[in-house]
Design brief:
By secondary structure, the chain is mainly β. Helix content is about 0%, strand content about 45%.
Length: about 120
């Protein structure tokens, strides 16, 4: 949205789109590392943080998985249980606020760690 006041142009930024290419980067028998790329459209201002949310098995409630603002493009969620399906989503924040969610296309079920 643009407004002109006293012949000056003021641009108002909006919330960003969801992060792109959300995927599982690594998983163990009790953790999942998610990774993603920045949104295609940042809404007109720099991305300042990301938030990861988890929906645990047998729950309909999304919970925040990170205790601090995520500055990078990956995050590891620990203390998960094998054999249970977990759902994950991520959103980005800019000066205008939180944007849209990006959600994995299917739940993640942890399996025994084959590297042991």
């Amino acid at each position: 949205m643009n407004f002109i006041f006293n012949h000056k142009l003021f641009l108002f930024s909006g919330a960003p789109q969801g992060p792109t290419n959300l995927e599982v980067g690594n998983q163990t028998e009790n953790s999942v590392t998610l990774k993603w790329n920045k949104p295609k459209n940042d809404g007109g201002s720099k991305i300042t943080a990301y938030q990861v949310e988890i929906k645990k098995p047998d729950s309909d409630i999304w919970e925040i998985a990170n205790d601090y603002p995520i500055k990078g493009n990956d995050f590891t969620i620990d203390n998960l249980n094998m054999g249970k399906p977990y759902e994950f989503r991520v959103k980005a924040k800019n000066a205008a606020g939180w944007g849209d969610y990006s959600t994995l296309d299917r739940p993640v079920t942890l399996k025994p760690d084959s590297s042991k």
